[in-house]
Amino acid sequence: MSKTNRFDAQNYLARRARNEARLTAAGVYGPQMEHAACGVGFVAAQDGKPTRAVVDAAIEALQAIWHRGAVDADGMTGDGAGIHIEIPRDFFIEHIARTGHDDDGGRLAVGMVFLPRTDLAAQERCRCIVEQEILAVGHFIYGWRQVPVDTRALGDKASATRPEIEQIMFSMPADIDETEAERQLYIVRRRIEKAVTAELISDFYICSMSSRSIIYKGMFLAEQVTAFFPDLKDRAFRVVLRDLSPALFDQHHADLEAGAAVPRSGA
Asked: What is the pTM of this model?
């Protein structure tokens, strides 16, 4: 490399310091703003009515920030993207009916569960643990639902490590308030994770378990979220945004759930 083309680190650092000082003085920058450059946003409605528009707007916004995530050499595996929305009750009531159960009028809860895809015995053991812990606190299980996915939306690396993705649908007492319900489900989730770890089972992950919201995410590019998860394109997938609760979206999905471990699996 010629001397004229060599990177001048000292000059670069001095120029950056001058720019940072100018931006700080203008009130548009501060050292505390230095953090992971993920693309995160939300969409919220004000009327509280079930609407497909919120889902569509969040998906459109997510697909517009594809440039905020990394892309693997295969051109399709990403470092994660997803959407966190309120549980679309009508959508899941329809799927509960397919299990042979009727909605009992209780507080509907859904767990989005990633299971080891190639170890069927471990899969079944994980399901048993999940059910045991939910039943232990007195809730009624409607059943499991295999989440439809289109693996053509995945890159080679993501496809090679993708999990089996299933949802467990269950009912909590109608008179339990939301704060207590979420606290209880957090404890149930931690007990499940501890029990699975004790069994030395790998590639298990609870993406979300809540009576309020659900997360769809994976190691794909932002524009592939609806291609991989056909649920998100279902017109029955409508959400009510209670108390202006937003639909969150993120390119680099670790940020969708504070404190959650990022799964190695491909979805």
From this structure: 0.76
| Amino acid identity, position 173 | P
Contact between residue 44 and residue 244 where contact means Cβ atoms under 8 Å apart = yes
Strands across the sheet with 140-146, in order? 140-146, 164-172, 107-115, 205-210
Query: At 111, which helix (H) or strand (E)?
Result: strand 107-115
Contact 248, 84 (CB under 8 A): yes
What distances in angstroms separate CA 109 from CA 62, 136, 183, 185, one per listed residue? 25, 15, 13, 9
CA–CA separation, 256 and 267 (whole Å) = 14
pLDDT digits (tens, 9 = 90+) for 10-61: 787 888 889 889 888 988 878 777 665 677 777 777 776 667 788 888 888 8
Angle between helices 120-136 and 178-198 (to 10 degrees): 140
Q: Catalytic positions, please?
A: 38
